[in-house]
């Protein structure tokens, strides 16, 4: 397995896997296939990499099998948000999400963030287990209408980076 930081030149790979994720798991992401399938090349380049975000691509030899992202919180310069994690079904249950969490944690530290946050649909048990296994603590729950039309709570978590006090 190899994890690679995406660049804007990886936009086609990112687009392909992101759209696969949105089609195959329409109820677990904060966006939808209908919304992102019409993005043009410039939008995908921006989505793939930027000064305040990172996307990581996971390969099994030369096969792209997953992706994950992290970006600066729009309202809190001390916080980064973990987003868009997806593994192809054949690779789930192998604890590969640990690679995603470690890469995002390392990136956040390098960028000077003091806190990571992540959210997921209440019924997304694999995400809950992965978050908690990596040390994230639940902070709150909010009602949410997902892109598949289901109303279900979104659970939010945070991870304070070592050496930093609560609140930054």
Automatic annotation (TrEMBL):
Residues 1-162 form the N-acetyltransferase domain. The keyword Iron-sulfur does not apply. Signal peptide: none annotated. It comes from the Bacteria. Transmembrane segments: none annotated. InterPro entries: Acyl_CoA_acyltransferase, Bact_Acetyltransf, GNAT_dom. Keywords: Acyltransferase, Transferase. Pfam families: Acetyltransf_1 (PF00583). One of its GO terms (molecular function) is acyltransferase activity, transferring groups other than amino-acyl groups. This is RimJ/RimL family protein N-acetyltransferase.
